[in-house]
Write a structure and sequence with these properties.
255 residues; alpha/beta; Rossmann fold; OB fold (Dihydrolipoamide Acetyltransferase, E2P); 2 domains; 33% strand
């Protein structure tokens, strides 16, 4: 990575660890010009900072793997759905043998305690997120939440609670029994990541497979019949496109 001034985000739940990284970055500023653009104590705080329009551009995030609320792996999985994201380098207290067990060939990481010599390699890192396959080796179960930015806060939305995802302009709406959330990820990306949980019913809508309780016919004003998906505990009915109807019919047959 070749930049005049490297803007770094430090993400670690331990204040002493953040302080040490800040001091090390200051120590090597002569050789590697850098500035700490922000600090976060977990993945949720990091997402809030990155969603803040007043936040300076971030080139690279130094991210602890183990953190409460939203850990480093989950944070990167959330960043993967954004149009632009900083490069990520994990910091970890695992020893080298434990790290190898994760098969992290495609992931950049620094072992704690991080040393200045290791940080000097920051400008050699590609401006990219860790490889998706490598992330799956760390967290094969995948994400358990999506996130929604609301009035400067990040709300975590449990995937298990989402009944459907519908594309509307530049956002995707995630619908739970209680309310709707705006998700800044593309429907295509969400379908690719969560294809086993959701099924496409229309070009702009994915529905949780276990939320579908049936279908009913709806006759339009032009006299042509269409199918609507019925959802558990929700009065709203969702239209099924002609193209997607065969897979919805197959799903219902196997229930």
């Amino acid at each position: 990575m070749s930049v005049a001034l490297l803007r770094v985000l430090i993400v670690d739940d331990e204040a002493p660890a953040r302080s040490r990284l800040r001091n090390l970055l200051a120590d090597i500023a002569g050789e590697l010009p850098n500035v700490v653009a922000g600090e976060a104590a977990d993945g949720v705080e990091a997402l809030e900072l990155l969603a803040n329009e007043s936040m300076p551009r971030v080139d690279v995030a130094l991210v602890d793997i183990r953190m409460p609320r939203l850990d480093g792996i989950a944070l990167v999985q959330h960043l993967a759905g954004r149009e632009t994201s900083p490069a990520v380098i994990f910091t970890t207290a695992y020893d080298q043998y434990a790290v190898r067990a994760f098969d992290l060939n495609a992931i950049d990481y620094l072992l704690k305690p991080v040393r200045a010599a290791a940080l000097k390699k920051l400008n050699e890192r590609p401006h990219a997120l860790p490889d998706a396959a490598a992330l799956r080796s760390l967290a094969p179960e995948g994400r358990a939440h999506l996130h929604s930015s609301e009035r400067g806060r990040i709300l975590l939305v449990s995937l298990a609670d989402i009944l459907y995802l519908r594309a509307e302009l530049k956002y995707v709406t995630a619908r739970t029994l209680e309310r709707e959330y705006l998700i800044e990820e593309s429907l295509t990306h969400l379908e690719h990541e969560f294809g086993e949980r959701f099924i496409r019913v229309h070009r702009n809508c994915l529905v949780a497979r276990d939320a579908i309780v049936g279908v009913e016919r709806d006759t339009a004003e032009d006299g042509e019949a269409h199918w609507l998906v019925l959802l558990r505990e929700l009065a709203e009915k969702l239209p099924v496109s002609r193209r997607q109807w065969p897979q919805i019919k197959t799903l219902l047959k196997h229930e």
